[in-house]
Design goal:
CATH architecture: 3-Layer(aba) Sandwich
Number of helices: 9
Largest sheet: 7 strands, mixed
CATH superfamily: Vaccinia Virus protein VP39
Oligomer: single chain
Strand order of the largest sheet: 3-2-1-4-5-7-6
Structural class: alpha/beta
Number of domains: 1
Radius of gyration: 18 Å
Distance between the termini: 51 Å
Bound molecules: S-adenosyl-L-homocysteine
């Protein structure tokens, strides 16, 4: 075992991570079927509605939202290359008039209060932290608007030490379902839906990565950052297979009520 195995994705040179993820349709655990399922809980969207997709990456799910609503949609991500790829895809799908990516920071969103009908964020809110995100973003939603986010979550009150330690370090805000729902309610949302994403969301994510890891390592032969990153991803994947009864991604959908 290597000493770096407990490092997390957050500890590595961001350019390496960016490169590793730039050629996948999605940069986090998710797929269009699950995006559409979550969308089915949202009512009242019209062509006048405005959606923000926060931490959109290359816009895989944003394009899905674009094809399945008539709304104006703004995707926001910190990384310019992701946004450029997103805007090329939007153009190629002829969605460019109402589905656009912009570079921006989820800590300082470029919206005014009560501008949005829906805030979407898959596999991203952990960057700011779930509780901070849902609290800070609420003001941008109209009263009656919705938030739909995915978040890594404990499925039980107690976990084996190895997995507890790993996630405690990687994402200390990981918590149980009732605690996440209570945070939503406290932040001023009516919890509309809370459900588990299927295991395949992670197993597909990791198996797609496994297919690319050899090429990635060949390209960065001798680069310690690349090697450490690859081994940390493999470690995380092995942990998932071992402990998937104890945690996974959940969709949390809420409606702004105050
Ligand atoms: N929603 C996409 C991408 C998830 S990966 C999907 O599900 O496929 C997480 C994304 O959050 C990355 O694209 C990363 O660039 C972005 N990100 C990280 N910190 C951010 C911040 N402070 N503001 C905006 N985006 C951020």
């Amino acid at each position: 075992m290597m000493s770096n195995e407990k490092q997390t994705i957050h500890d590595f040179d961001i350019n390496i991570i960016y490169e590793y993820f730039s050629n996948t349709e999605r940069q986090g655990p998710g797929n269009s079927k699950e995006t559409l399922k979550a969308l089915s809980f949202i009512t009242g969207l019209t062509e006048k509605s405005k959606i923000a997709d926060i931490g959109c990456g290359t816009g895989g799910q944003t394009i899905t939202l674009g094809h399945n609503t008539s709304c104006e949609i703004i995707g926001i991500d910190l990384w310019q290359d992701f946004i450029e790829k997103f805007n090329r895809n939007s153009f190629n799908q002829n969605l460019q008039d109402r589905v656009k990516g912009i570079v921006g920071n989820m800590e300082n969103l470029p919206f005014h209060e009560e501008e949005l009908d829906l805030i979407w964020s898959e596999g991203s809110i952990y960057n700011i932290g779930f509780e901070r995100g849902i609290n800070e973003w609420r003001k941008y939603l109209k009263i009656g608007g919705y938030i739909a986010v995915t978040e890594n979550t404990w499925f039980s009150e107690e976990r084996p030490e190895e997995i507890q330690e790993f996630w405690q370090k990687a994402y200390p805000e990981i918590d149980t379902i009732p605690n996440k729902v209570a945070q939503m309610q406290k932040a001023g949302y009516l919890p509309i839906a809370t459900y588990m994403l299927p295991e395949t969301i992670w197993t597909d994510y990791y198996s797609k990565q496994a297919l690319r890891i050899d090429d990635f390592l060949k390209k960065h032969k001798g680069n310690k950052t690349a090697e450490d990153f690859a081994s940390s991803q493999l470690y995380e994947s092995n942990l998932y297979h071992k402990y998937k009864a104890y945690y996974g991604y959940m969709f949390y959908i809420g409606k702004r009520v105050k």
